Amino acid sequence: MNIMNIIYVGLILFFIGGVGFLSKKNIFTSFICLELMLNAINLMLASVAFLTQDISTASLVLLVLALSAAEAALALAIIIIAYRDKSLLNIDLFSKLRG
Amino acid sequence: MFDAIFYILSILAIGGAIGIILFTHPLYSAFCFLLTLLSIAGFYALLNLKLLFAMQIIVYAGAIMVLIIFIMMYLNIKKQDIIKDKLLGVSVLISAIVLAPIAYVSVAVLQTYMVLSPPVILPEFGSVKNMGLSVFVDLPLQFELVSILLLLVAVGVILVLKKDKK
Predict the structure, then answer these.
(1) Chain A contact for B90, CB < 8 A?
(2) Segment A81-96 mean pLDDT
(3) Which of A20, A55, A84 shows the shortest C-beta gap to B125?
């Protein structure tokens, strides 16, 4: 098994996540695509850790996992208040959140 | 053996990721994302990272995805909430332009690294003891920053959700 293949899979996942994030109008799907991009980066980081046999790179993945949990909590709270105000899930409505 | 597992996992991961884009209802996208998350956990197992394999399933597939699916069901998404997506071609182009240099440089660097020093697999790599030691010995500042971030987010979510109940 070549480690580079896992890097390629991570790059493909990142690409699909970027396409979904830019093209989707639904806030939930956009958010899921953002999480997919984060996961692809995590996968690439883990395979670099395996390649260099450096365990501290792998523990960085653990910290990114905690970070993405925090990000999910905050993003879902913002989605809930936006839905409460306008009862829409369109991502364009988030331009009205300014001041 | 490892090759077969790798191909099955990559087909599942990429198929799930394509399913996220192709389904219009976000709940189906969430279930496709769950498939991708579980296959990424399989990749961690393939890379001998036992703690990450467990954490990916417990924290990501267990906690975060349950939270997302719970919020989707709480908001009760109806047919009229689903909006037509546009500009798929343009977003493919933009993502390709952004990703191409990053992909080129990272693949070139890693291939050179593999030629210069091929990986020597240590038997105890990725064990829970080693990873716990490295979190607290190599990355103590980052660990503390993440804990402060989690505390701030817990306070911030409560503040954001309480705003209109004056």
Answers:
(1) yes
(2) 76
(3) A55
